[in-house]
Each structure stands twice: as C-alpha cells, then as structure tokens.
C-alpha cells in the first residue's frame, strides 16, 4: 500500500496549510532542519488561546487561571503522548539547548552537594560525547567538567563526519558517568544507533543524554524504549512556535535532579534559610511559563500525528533520496555524511569546490531557494572536515520533488557563476 504523504493528502494540499508557502508560492524552502514552517492549525491554536483563554497558570484560584492551566497541562499531555512519555516526565524549556543545559547544570549542582549523590561528578570521572555534536551538546559538558574536575572525552569522526559504535564502545570505561550524543546529526544526517549506545552506557553505569532535535520531528519516537535517561527536543523544528522546547527524563531521575533555575512555581516550602522543591516537572519550571507556546507546540504534534508517522517517513525518504542524488551527481560538489544508499535523515550538507558556503547560499537565495549556510553550530566537526562552513538543504512534510529539482538545477550553476568551473 502506498504510504507516502501524497496518498494520505496531496502535498499541494499540505503546502496550502502553511501561510508562508502560500504567500510565497515561488519560494523553495529547504531549511526546515533549522526552523520549520508553521501550519495554519498551529497559528490558530496559539492565537485562540491568547484571544480567549490567556491568563497565568498554576497561580490563584480564579476561573481564568483554571482554564489557562488546563490548556497548559493538556499541551504537556499531548507532547508526552507524542514521544511515548508520561506527563510528569516532560519539562517545558526555552528550547533544546536550554534542556541540555538544565541537565548539565543540575549535575553540576549535585556535584557541589546540592542534590542526589547519584549525579555527582568528581575528578577522574569522565563525560563522553562525539566530535559531531552541536555546540548545545558540547559546551554545557565543557563547563560541567571545568566545574567538577571531571574529564571530557569524545568519539572521533571519519573523513565523512561519521562516528562508529565500535569507537564509542572503546571509549566507555569504568569512570564514564555520562554519554551525551545526537540521535541525528544536524550536519551529516547520520542516524545514531541509540539503543546500542544506551546499552553500552548502562553497562558502565553511565547516564545517557540524547539530543533528539533532528529526530522527534521526523520519526516516531518512544523515548523510554530507546533506553536513554534524558532527551531534549524543540518545538520550532516540528512545525511549532519558537521559544519552547522539552526535556524528557525518567521520572525517578527528574525528581532527584537539582533544578538549574529556582524561584516561583518550583517550591513546596521556603524559609529564610532553605527551600524544598516540588517533584518534576514543576521543580524545573521557575517563573512565568510559556503558556501560549505550549499550546502551539501541542497543536504541531497533533498536526504531525494526523499526517501519520508512516506517511511522513515515506515522504521524507523519497525527498532525501532526491536531495542526495541532486548533490552527489553535481560535478564539483561533495556530499557530507553517509554515502548515497546509506540511511540518513532528510538533510544534505555539501561543499562546492572553489566557492565559499555563504556565496553558495546567496546564489541559491537569489533564485528563491532557502538553504542554511555556516558551521551549523558544529565547529569541531567542520574543522575535522577541513572546511569553515558547509551549505545544507533539508526537507520536510511540505517539500516537493519540484522543489528539489529547482535546487538541483541551481546548484549545477553555482561553480560556473563564480568562475570555479562546471
């Protein structure tokens, strides 16, 4: 049976759900790995809440507060169900970067004696990451080891920007306390063997922290079944608003992890000498919460659920194949990441011989094609590849074969335009 999105709903109909694409019918948007477009259903849900139900949540006993709180917590239930979690395992954050920092800062506080001993790091302990990580899953761990005296180690990547499970296994030892890695690389599109990594880490007694930004929007994820201990993802990469993300953690771990930020809404009892904190998720959600954003986030999850994970996956597999073919078949253009025919997510980073990535991006943009250029917040990976920057094209539910054909044609003209050959 045909499970592509075209079978469930014609792509043209899906594109009509997205106001920006309707407003700019000639624009090819291939930058969803950075920020995806929002469908009208998401915009409408957030707008309706702001117009009709806007109020503080978890504060006071008014009808308005009660209605807003119901909407806020219902959104949490929706996101929890979307990733196979319990509602008390979903913490609202500013974004996935914030979520990863919450874990690292909580472990840092525990190492100072402010939380459960199970999280405490000491000199000689090790935090293991990969050379392919986004800065959001690198810098917090750099800061953590600097505070605690632990050691940061990493799994190297090869000339294509990929790391291997065997190389990771070799670096996990008795002093490994944390293994942090991305489910999908935002540069190479490589898909990590999450269950295998979690099993290796568990054998050493290490916690696993998963950057799931590039996986949750595109594939059906059951966070508990993956075997990891924490996972972070963002709304704006899955058709939702900016300014909100989520931290998932196993309930027993979240209830013991010290909160990275403290203040109103997080406490049970406060005296002038000390404070006691609520269980998860409230213990991590200090101050005024992102209520309308949470409503929009949930609407995005509902939209994706209605499309169906199988349909999304089949469509993206087709678009990924076309992207990889467009890049790999263009003379003077080098594909980064898995070789053609190997599994990858729906993005393709590439290097154009003799032309800087920023110039590539400007050339494509002049022809109505939006891509991402730069180091994609992954400088160590680009340094290993021997380049300062790459260009990246990424597809999503609204991408069409015609979009990618326009990209292919424009890409084939880049080197000639800049006098670099081709």
From TrEMBL:
Keyword Transferase listed: yes
Entry EC number(s): 2.8.1.7
Domain Aminotransferase class V, first and last residues per copy: 28-407
PROSITE patterns according to UniProt: AA_TRANSFER_CLASS_5 (PS00595)
UniProt keyword annotations, A-Z: Pyridoxal phosphate, Transferase
Cofactor(s) recorded in Swiss-Prot or TrEMBL: pyridoxal 5'-phosphate
Catalytic activity, as annotated: (sulfur carrier)-H + L-cysteine = (sulfur carrier)-SH + L-alanine
One Pfam family of this chain: Aminotran_5
Domain of life where this protein originates: Bacteria
InterPro entries: Aminotrans_V_dom, Aminotrans_V_PyrdxlP_BS, Cys_dSase_SufS, PyrdxlP-dep_Trfase, PyrdxlP-dep_Trfase_major, PyrdxlP-dep_Trfase_small
NCBIfam families listed in its UniProt record: sufS (TIGR01979)
Its job: Catalyzes the removal of elemental sulfur and selenium atoms from L-cysteine, L-cystine, L-selenocysteine, and L-selenocystine to produce L-alanine.
Sequence similarity: Belongs to the class-V pyridoxal-phosphate-dependent aminotransferase family. Csd subfamily.
Listed name of the protein: Cysteine desulfurase
Originating organism: Microbacterium deminutum
């Amino acid at each position: 049976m045909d499970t592509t999105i075209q079978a469930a709903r014609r792509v043209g109909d899906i594109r009509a759900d997205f106001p920006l694409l309707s407003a700019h019918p000639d624009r090819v948007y291939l930058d969803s790995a950075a920020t995806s477009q929002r469908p009208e259903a998401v915009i409408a849900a957030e707008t309706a809440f702001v117009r009709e139900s806007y109020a503080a949540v978890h504060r006071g006993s008014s009808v308005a507060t009660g209605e807003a709180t119901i909407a806020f917590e219902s959104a949490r239930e929706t996101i929890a169900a979307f990733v196979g979690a319990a509602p008390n395992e979903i913490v609202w954050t500013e974004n996935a970067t914030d979520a990863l920092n919450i874990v690292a800062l909580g472990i840092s506080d525990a190492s100072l004696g402010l939380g459960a001993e199970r999280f405490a790091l000491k000199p000689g302990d090790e935090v293991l990451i990969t050379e392919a990580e986004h800065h959001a899953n690198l810098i917090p761990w750099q800061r953590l080891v600097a505070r605690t005296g632990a050691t940061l180690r990493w799994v190297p990547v090869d000339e294509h920007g990929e790391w291997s499970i065997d190389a990771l296994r070799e670096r996990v030892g008795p002093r490994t306390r944390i293994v942090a890695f991305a489910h999908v690389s935002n540069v190479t599109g490589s898909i990590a063997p999450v269950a295998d990594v979690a099993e290796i880490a568990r054998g050493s007694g290490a916690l696993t922290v998963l950057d799931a930004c590039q996986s949750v929007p595109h594939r059906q994820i059951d966070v508990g079944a993956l075997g990891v201990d924490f996972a972070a993802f963002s709304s704006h990469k899955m058709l939702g608003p900016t300014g909100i993300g989520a931290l998932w953690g196993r309930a027993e771990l979240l209830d013991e992890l010290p909160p990275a930020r403290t203040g109103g809404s997080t406490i049970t009892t406060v005296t002038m000498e000390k404070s006691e904190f609520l269980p998860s998720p409230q213990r991590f959600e200090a101050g005024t919460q992102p209520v309308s954003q949470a409503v929009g986030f949930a609407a995005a999850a509902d939209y994706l659920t209605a499309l169906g994970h199988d349909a999304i996956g089949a469509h993206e597999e087709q678009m990924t194949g076309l992207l990889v073919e467009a890049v790999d078949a263009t003379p003077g253009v080098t594909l980064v990441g898995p070789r053609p025919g190997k599994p990858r997510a729906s993005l393709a980073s590439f290097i154009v011989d003799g032309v800087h990535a920023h110039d590539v991006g400007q050339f494509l943009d002049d022809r109505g094609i939006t891509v991402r250029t730069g180091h994609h917040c992954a400088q160590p990976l680009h340094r290993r590849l021997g380049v300062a920057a790459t260009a990246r094209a990424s597809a999503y539910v609204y991408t069409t074969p015609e979009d990618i054909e326009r990209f292919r044609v424009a890409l084939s003209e880049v080197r000639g335009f800049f006098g670099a050959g081709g």
